[in-house]
Every structure is written in C-alpha cells, then in structure tokens.
Amino acid sequence: MLLILKRNSHWKWVRIVPVVICLMLSACVATAPLAPAVVVAPIVKPIKSLRIGLALGGGAARGFAHIGVIKALESQGIAPDIVVGTSAGSVVGAMYAAGNNGFALQKLALEMDEAAISDWSLPLFSKTSGVLKGEALQAYVNKIVLQVPIERLRKPFGAVATDLITGQPILFQRGNTGLAVRASSSVPGVFQPVRINERQYVDGGLVSPVPVMFAREMGADLVIAVNISSQPEVQAAGSLDVLMQTFTIMGQRLNYFELRGADIVIRPELLGMRGNDFAGRNLAILAGERAAMANMAELKQKIRAMQER
Q1: Is pLDDT above 60 for 238?
Q2: What does the H/E/C string look like for the chain?
Q3: Has residue 31 got a pLDDT over 80?
Q4: CA–CA gap between residue 268 and residue 284 (Å, rounded)
Q5: Which one from 90, 184, 186, 203 is the annotated catalytic residue?
Q6: Residue 21 CB contacts under 8 Å (≥ 6 apart), including other chains
Q7: How far apart (Å, rounded) are the C-alpha atoms in residues 92 and 40?
Q8: What is the per-residue pLDDT across 155-167, written as a single tens digit (0 to 9) for each?
Q9: Rounded to a whole number, what is the largest CA-CA distance in the chain?
Q10: What range(s) does the PNPLA domain occupy (predicted)?
Q11: Domains plus CATH for the chain?
C-alpha cells in the first residue's frame, strides 16, 4: 500500500506510517499466545484439634446447677471431651460421662428420690464415724451408669477424693464408678470414710473444691470450671450447718488459687440455696443454664482463638 503513493503525496505517507505500525503491532499482540494466569490460592490455616475439659465443683444439692450448665453447652454445640468432678460434681460428672445428655440428666434429677441416696447408719450404736454410710449413693450411681467402670465410660472421667491419712488428693480414673463417686462425696462427719485398697478416702472438696488442675492433668487444652460453692453467711447453729459453713470457708481459699487456672469460670447464682435443699433442684438447674449462657460469648471466642493458634 505504501508503494503506490505518488511523490507529491508525501504528507499522506507521513500520516499513514504510524497507523500501519500500530496495525502491525496490534496484529502481533492479537496473535501472540496468552501467558497462563497465575492463581494464588488463599492460605487456609488448619483448625487445631481442641480438647475441652469440664471441671465440676462440689456443693451438695447445689450440684444440680451442673446439669443446667451441661444443657446450655450442648445447646451451643459444645461437647466437653473430659469430665472431672469433686463431690456433687463427681455425681453429675459420672452420669454425664456415661452418655446421658443434659435433658436426660435433668429427667434423672427431677425423678430422684432423696431417700434413694440416704442410707442412715446408727452412729449411736456403731464404732464407725459419720452418719451416712454412702452405700445407697454408690448403688444409685452404678445403676445409672449401668455398672460400667470408670475406664469404660463414654467420656474420660475422673473423681477427686482425699486420702484421709496423708491429706493428699487422689484422682480415680479406674475401677468401680459408684465407689469412686461415693469416696469423692464422703463429707467427714456426714458420710463414713470409704475404704479402697486398705486406704480410707473422704470428700475431695477438702483438697480440690473445683478440680481444674486435674482436668489439665487429664489432657484438657481448655478448661471450663463450674463453681457452685456458697459464700460464707450466717446460718443456723445446727451441727450440720456449722460443718457445712466450715467447708465453705475452707473452700473459698482453695478455689481462689485453683480457679485461676481455668479458661472460663461459670458461677451459677444460687443465693440462699443450702447444700441440703433438694427441693430447689429445678431452680438450681435453671441457674446453671443462665450462668453458662452469660459466659457463652467469651467461651466461644476463646475456643476460636485456641483453634486458630
């Protein structure tokens, strides 16, 4: 096309050359193979497997609040992997570890006959100390867990008791479930000490009112502690009231140190509920649910943070 231009059309030549060059360059670009696009995949951080431990504290009839806590956790899809209990916490913990969910535990609680776990001995005619033998409690727990020993429960479970001779805590993780719970719940002066393998054991609340340390020892990465202990208050001057008040005062100091090791501490509001108030079980369950839900946002945030580390 350029060769047919006349000499007197020099100005056209000058104007057409840039156009031709552009066309040639565009043709080259159009026919050149396209480089493959580089796709950068987003970095997906794997979710860390997290073992959640549930440490259930002692508090006699106030322990019904543990059931409400379990119900609330389950409603939010949180299922503890490890369960450790002291005294009343060991009773609820054993039944939960055996496979009973929160609603099943509530049904058991509301149907429980107090007489079924109270086998009064005759202290005036007996050389043994204590008022309750505790055998009925042992039988009741074993009935609920279908006679399954601790090591065969559906969830890893531990019951905390106190060696009466050495004063050292003991964590039962094997053997007769009901017997371990009975030992963990044997309040001195109320229940007779439990003899296991030539040693005597009493209530675990003497050494570990809320067993956070033992939940860690069993492998928990995150520990949810449930503290149902009452505040010291003026009570009637009956011998049982004085004894329970002594436990309350002692437990306050122990809890101060142990609860610092928990990731979340749930404190059901059980104002005015005494340890022998079995009639208030339904209100205690509701208090446990409310307290757990009040801590749920913080608990979920901590779970996510630990999973993403």
Answers
A1: no
A2: CCCCCCHHHHHHHHHHHHHHHHHHHHHHHHHCCCCCCCCCCCCCCCCCCCCEEEEECCCHHHHHHHHHHHHHHHHCCCCCCEEEEECHHHHHHHHHHCCCCHHHHHHHHHHCCHHHHCCECCHHHCCCCCCECCHHHHHHHHHHCCCCCHHHCCCCEEEEEEECCCCCEEEECCCCHHHHHHHHCCCECCECCEEECCEEEEEHHHCCCCCHHHHHHCCCCEEEEECCCCCCCCCCCCHHHHHHHHHHHHHHHHHHHHHHHCCEEECCCCCCCCCCCHHHHHHHHHHHHHHHHHCHHHHHHHHHHHHCC
A3: no
A4: 8
A5: 203
A6: none
A7: 51
A8: 999 999 999 999 9
A9: 140
A10: 54-216
A11: 52-308 (3.40.1090.10)
**pLDDT, position 12:** 46
Question: Between 281-294 and 296-307, two packed helices, what is the crossing angle to 10 degrees?
Answer: 50
Concerning whether 87 is annotated as a catalytic residue, the answer is yes
Q: Is the pLDDT of residue 30 over 70?
A: no
pLDDT attached to residue 182? 97
Higher pLDDT, 232 or 31: 232
Q: What is the pLDDT of residues 105-135, one digit of tens each?
A: 999 999 998 777 777 655 444 455 567 889 9
Do 184 and 90 touch, CB atoms closer than 8 A?
Answer: yes
Predicted confidence at residue 256, as pLDDT, reads 82
Q: Are 60 and 117 in contact (CB under 8 A)?
A: no
What's the whole-model pTM score? 0.81
Whether 263 is catalytic? no
**Token pair recorded at residue 31:** 């026919």
Cα–Cα dist 95/31, whole Å? 76
Residue with tokens 């040639």: 24
The catalytically annotated residue of 87, 90, 184, 208 is: 87
> What percent of the chain has a predicted confidence (pLDDT) above 70?
75
Q: What is the mean pLDDT of residues 9-32?
A: 46
Q: At what angle do helices 65-75 and 281-294 cross, to 10 degrees?
A: 40
Q: Which two tokens stand for residue 79?
A: 């299922």
